Amino acid sequence: MKRIFKKLSIWLMVASLGLIMSSLTVILFVHYWAHTEAGKVPPKTAVLLHAVHHNLVTPDMSAPKFFSPRGAPRFTSEMVDIPVSDGSTIESKIYKPIAEGPHPIILYYHGGASWKDMETFIRMIIL
To answer: Which residues cross the membrane (predicted)?
Structure first.
């Protein structure tokens, strides 16, 4: 019986050590991703930007519940037209934090996604 408990306790220690090492690895990667050329971004934003950069997010995905807004709004948004050199404009949407800064700037340009897809992406980044 003692032998069984000894093997079980060794197995539990090894499993615990593996869990701790896995958790530390994830924490270190997220910490690394959060430091961008433009400054530090929140952990959720860092993970999402990493996923988008490596094509791990598909257009038909919906935002996980923990990205859904709750409480008072933290951002305002407005549509603007950015003039370009040929005289035309690029329709853009600017999201501004309500809280005092400084805040990092995230410039996301894309080719052809609909505003519905963009809204899902933006909700995941700004929350």
So the answer is: 12-34
